[in-house]
Write a structure and sequence with these properties.
With 130 residues, chain A is α+β, with helices and mostly antiparallel strands. Chain A is 25% helix and 33% strand. Chain A has a six-stranded antiparallel sheet with strand order 1-2-3-9-8-5. In chain A, strands 4-6-7 form a three-stranded antiparallel sheet. With 353 residues, chain B is α+β, with helices and mostly antiparallel strands. Chain B is globular. In chain B, strands 11-12-13-10-4-14 form a six-stranded mixed sheet. Chain B has a six-stranded antiparallel β-barrel with strand order 15-18-17-16-19-20. In chain B, strands 6-7-8-5-9 form a five-stranded antiparallel sheet. Classes of the chains: A alpha+beta (130), B alpha+beta (353). The A-B interface holds A 38-39, 41-42, 44, 62, 64, 67, 90, 93 and B 28, 31-33, 216, 220, 283-285, 305-306, 313, 332.
Chain lengths: 130, 353
């Protein structure tokens, strides 16, 4: 399959993956996830250059309620992390899909993308978990 | 679950409801941190009607409370201020903390929701030969209006004459009791009023654009302010001196034989464990039960939260003596540095440690 730039996919752990040009994907957590977590106070992100396998524990998002481990929905190399979250973790609550992105990763494995959910399938998942 | 009069109102305001010791209560109305900041910056409104109100009657009330309470009830008569006191058992263990008021010739006690049944039994059990009657007021609701603009906001309602009494002072008429007190470390008021009147008073305050505040922010505010929470920071296995409450025990009158006095006199308040404030240096949240260690001893985290003003996680711990300034807390299998400070962290919106 061809990866479409701008395409949005989801993991069953409530992460979103947005495909950009040149095999780059942006990863964040969804609005559904931030709603479950409540006010987010700390974020731990990977290092730029870090090699990541599928499902590696890649980040931690800690809210007043609990610390939530983020498992990478795709494998690859970390290209960039969202430094702004260090001072303003609450941006994940207010803008989970845009300004609250966690990291950018260069991916190689298109099969992994196939395993992720389409927006419709993700909506169904959220309904079933509500 | 038990419900306050305003239960549906909270839901209509979008509150996330939780079970707080058998009561359906609002945890937050969207963001705990937003609510926390509203109280520090301006004013917030809490429904705390889950708390217990007991009214007393009878000619032996003074003698009864002099025996029952670890603080001396006579102070109320001297100053027309409400009194914070512990109730301790014969072993010096803490049964509850509460606030006492005197309305004409009757005392009123406001105490925790978690301890209602236990307290009622203890109060009754200790009446013995005192001419004292007790009535739990299930017909009353309690609102807290807290923050630098709280008094001004209340005055705008025109329910009473503008407030002139100071901290811990109070006034009442047939329709309402207003106390200048609270659980947040800010200026503010606590209103005790009949169930049939609380909805209107709540709506009038909300209509002034006052932020409703849930139990989540109530907890983060009280931790910043250095106030204990019974059942979390202390219970019957703890005595006052290891709970940062030695100051509330009044030993001055040698004729006053209050329950637990002998046991408390036998505790060495200088060598026992201490309840202190803890601040995390760096990232990570303090949570109840985490272990703390330092060269000369160890301890345990009692409660934790996030302080927006300090921009770090803060909490309380009960630790051995012999500590210096720092220690290590175990957070998710990692040791993180913490600083020990004397409480409170904050007063009137400012860091004071």
């Amino acid at each position: 399959m061809n990866a479409m730039t701008g395409e949005l996919k989801f993991s069953t752990n409530h992460e979103w993956v947005r495909l950009e040009q040149d095999n780059v994907a942006v990863v964040g957590i969804t609005d559904f996830a931030q709603g479950l977590l409540g006010d987010i106070v700390f974020v731990e992100l990977p290092e730029v250059g870090q090699q990541v396998q599928l499902n590696d524990e890649i980040a931690v998002v800690e809210s007043l309620k609990a610390a939530s481990d983020i498992y990478s929905p795709i494998s690859g190399v970390i290209l960039e992390i969202n430094e702004a979250l260090s001072d303003q973790p609450e941006v994940i609550n207010s803008s989970p899909d845009e300004q609250g992105w966690l990291y950018k990763i260069e991916y190689r494995n298109l099969d992994e993308l196939n395993q992720l959910l389409s927006p419709d399938d993700y909506n169904d998942l959220c309904q079933s978990e509500s | 679950m038990k419900k306050t009069v305003l239960n549906e109102t909270h839901q209509a305001l979008g509150a996330k409801m939780i079970d707080f010791s058998g009561w359906s209560m609002p945890l937050h109305y969207g963001s705990q941190i937003t609510e926390h900041n509203a109280v520090r910056d301006s004013v917030g409104l809490f429904d705390v009607s889950h708390m217990s109100v007991f009214d007393f009657i009878g000619k032996d009330q003074d003698a009864y409370f002099r025996r029952l309470l670890a603080n001396d009830i006579q102070k109320i008569n001297a100053q027309k201020k409400s009194l914070y006191s512990l109730v301790v058992n014969e072993s010096g263990g803490i049964i509850d903390d509460l606030i006492a008021y005197k309305l004409d010739d009757r005392y009123r006690i406001v105490s925790n929701s978690t301890t209602m049944a236990k307290n009622k039994a203890w109060f009754k059990q200790n009446i013995k030969s005192f001419d004292v009657g007790i009535k739990r007021r299930e017909d009353l609701s309690i609102l807290a209006l807290q923050g630098p603009q709280a008094v001004e906001s209340f005055n705008q309602l025109g329910i009473l004459e503008p407030i002139t009494f100071e901290y811990m002072g109070y006034a009442s008429d047939q329709s309402i009791m207003v106390s200048r007190s609270g659980y947040t470390g800010e200026d503010g008021l606590e209103l005790i009023l009949p169930d049939h009147a609380v909805a209107e008073t709540w709506q009038r305050l909300i209509a002034m654009n006052i932020q409703p505040i849930g139990l989540g922010a109530r907890d983060s505010l009280r931790i910043e302010a250095g106030f204990n929470l019974y059942g979390v920071d202390m219970d019957e296995t703890n005595h006052p001196f290891e709970s940062n409450l030695g100051w509330s025990i009044d030993f001055r009158d040698p004729e006053r034989n209050f329950i637990g006095k002998d046991a408390l006199l036998n505790i060495d308040a200088k060598s026992c464990r201490q309840l202190l404030g803890v601040i995390v240096k760096g990232k990570g949240m303090l949570r109840t039960g985490q272990k703390i260690k330092y060269p000369n001893g160890s301890g345990e985290v009692l409660c934790g939260t996030f302080s927006p003003l300090i921009n770090a996680s803060i909490g309380y711990a009960r630790i051995d003596r012999g500590y210096a300034h720092n220690g290590l807390v175990s957070i998710r299998d990692k040791h993180t540095e913490v600083e020990f400070v004397a409480l409170p962290f904050i007063r009137n919106g400012r860091v004071v440690f």
